[in-house]
Specification:
The structure is a single chain. Helix 3 packs antiparallel against helix 4. The protein folds into two domains: 43 residues; 101 residues. By secondary structure, it is an all-alpha fold. Helices cover 68% and strands 0% of the residues. The structure holds heme C (HEC).
Length: 151
């Protein structure tokens, strides 16, 4: 009799466990789906990622220049600016097309160790090129980009 009861209790416990694991599964799914959707919603475009990379790089060399160092390498693949997908209704407008080559040249000139132009001036020229395009193409980050200028 004791054995029989124990068996029953055991079976009940197993059933309870199974119930919980079923429930857990159905409860987990919507949460995971929500998370996935969040990730998709906040996923930056290829262009936005590239721009954030350009921001981070310039922030880094800004400090180097202030510290009296000379940045010598520019690891960003700026040619991707010509092909990267854009988001939020941004596109390669006439303004974009008129500004992009000038920006790329200005950004590359910073690490041109043979240049006769002062380093700080070359750096600020590149940042001014960021701002020239942003003035019409994407105004949101302008305050952030302005802080990159070396006074
Ligand atoms: C020729 C035009 C142009 C130039 C030059 C340019 N940008 Fe942008 N930038 C854009 C456009 C357009 C977007 C929006 C891209 C998108 O949302 O897909 C953008 C987006 C950004 C963003 C926001 C990214 C995000 O998370 O949404 C930052 C930050 C940024 N740019 C910084 C810079 C910096 C720093 C430079 C210079 C080193 C620069 N940009 C040069 C046009 C330009």
């Amino acid at each position: 009799m004791v054995f029989y009861l124990n068996n029953k209790v055991f079976a009940f416990a197993v059933m309870l466990l199974l119930c919980f694991s079923c429930k857990n599964e159905t409860e987990h799914k919507p949460v995971e789906e929500e998370k996935k959707q969040e990730l998709i919603m906040y996923q930056p475009s290829e262009m936005a990622s590239l721009m954030n990379g350009m921001y981070a790089y310039n922030l880094q060399i800004r400090q180097q220049i202030i510290d009296g160092e000379t940045p010598v390498s520019m690891p960003l693949d700026l040619m991707k600016l010509h092909s990267a997908d854009m988001s939020n209704g941004h596109a390669r407008t006439a303004v974009w097309n008129s500004k992009i080559d000038g920006f790329i040249e200005a950004q590359q000139t910073i690490v041109d160790t043979l240049s006769n132009i002062e380093l700080k001036q070359r750096y600020n020229a590149a940042i001014s090129n960021c701002l020239a395009c942003h003035k019409t193409e994407c105004t949101g980050p302008i305050p952030k980009i302005k802080k990159l200028l070396i006074q």
